[in-house]
Amino acid sequence: MKLTLAQLRDIWAGxxxxxxxxxxxxxxxxxxxxxADALRSGNALYGINTGFGKLASTRISDDNLAALQRNLIxxxxxxxxxxxxxxxxxxxxxxxxxxxxxxRSGVRRVVVDGLLKLLTSGAxxxxxxxxxxxxxxxxxPLAHLACPLxxxxxxxxxxETLAARDGLQRIGLEQIVLGPKEGLxxxxxxxxxxxxxxxxxxxxxxxxxxxxxAGAMSVDALKGTDAPFDERIHLARGQKGQIExxxxxxxxxxxxAIRESHRNAVDDPRVQDPxxxxxxxQVMGACLDVLxxxxxxxxxxxxxxxxxxxxxxxxxxxxxxxxxxxxxVAFAADMISMAxxxxxxxxxxRIALLIDPxxxxxxxxxxxxxxxxSGFMILHxxxxxxxxxxxxxxxxxxxxxxxxxxxxxxxxxxxxxxxxKAGDIATNAAHVIAIELLAxxxxxxxxxxxxxxxxxxxxxxxxxxxxxxxxTDRSLAGDIGRVRELIEASAFAG
Length: 494
Fold this sequence. Notes:
CATH topology of the largest domain: Fumarase C, Chain A, domain 2
GO biological process, one term: L-histidine catabolic process to glutamate and formamide
Strand content: under 5%
CATH class of the largest domain: Mainly Alpha
Subcellular location: Cytoplasm
Largest sheet: 3 strands, antiparallel
Strand order of the largest sheet: 2-4-5
Helix content: 55-70%
Enzyme class: lyase
Order of helices and strands: HHHEHHEEHEEHHHHHHHHEEHHHHHH
Number of strands: 7
CATH architecture of the largest domain: Up-down Bundle
EC number: 4.3.1.3
Main location: cytoplasm
């Protein structure tokens, strides 16, 4: 079984489904049989008949193997902080199912079916968001993900938070007694980190699309030129993302009456627009390339086997390794953080242009009665605050490491935190782009009776459907929130 990014996004949004076929179950059963056969050999097998981490040298008797796996789940369920949202939890469940379905984890079919039942029934484990360092697997959060299979912990079902045993009863799922290796397979892996990074990626893609629209609308509102988007400029450099962004900007501005009104203006003293207008293909194109690279890494990771040890049924062997180390995910999440931080940063500069009459040619702070009205003055302050916050959050988590487990796990990835803060940056950026869309729409209104392009007019009308033109001051907090909701609903996707 393999999931594409599009399928993962559907699951994230609550619109996708997941099912296993006969080939998946054949691999699962062959893997479980290999574990059973290996146990009969009497050899020490990490996490199967031994302790964990620094206690790996401790042998466990056969009559304590089930207790070993149950204790593993319960002892590791020590996460703290706010619970992961339902989108991230759905992704984590789905990715864990895909991982186990590869037949490298030594679990029985009943375990995989149990996880699948939680996902398809919408009985989502309550998973605290903090407590993983992103190596030896996302141990604490994955333990919370696994707890409901044992009748422990809590689930969210139908808008309620229930004791897991009650949730299982509602969806008709029996509690599971874990077999050898199964607890370890459930908590070992990068599924939480990957789900968090994918959540950030999907939201970053929505922010990126909205930012292109906002940037093009700002160019028009400011009577900027589209000459820097000429294809020849970008082909001369050859960067793929830059070429794509320039093409999209040309398409967005094409047919604008505002643009045509000043194409050959002899009284315009400007020679070149500021970088935040002119260099959008270069900046946004680089961001697009980074997001696409992160997406490729995360698509691989979502379909990867990342627990330990791994079972190779075709060879009859069980091998210990380190696929649980989430360094690829940490780097991908940090890349997303940096790209989205830059998207918000250049947007804030365009907001600053729009409110500055010395540069914009528009009324000060986008209001006709400045002084009596403050207009968009403080919206820019909000955007500046969020961009500054993002600069701190964008510091890479992947460059940090703190040894754990008595120095057995002496280098870790911090991927879970990298994914969490990438999501925070995406939220901040969505608010910044919402503010730019509001400001750019206000600027376009000041260019009446001239109209913007047909493509931008559609986006302008979406903004105006939730936020009317502001002739005099009013609170725009609700307007920002409504435009942000449009962004997060992919309303500005190209």
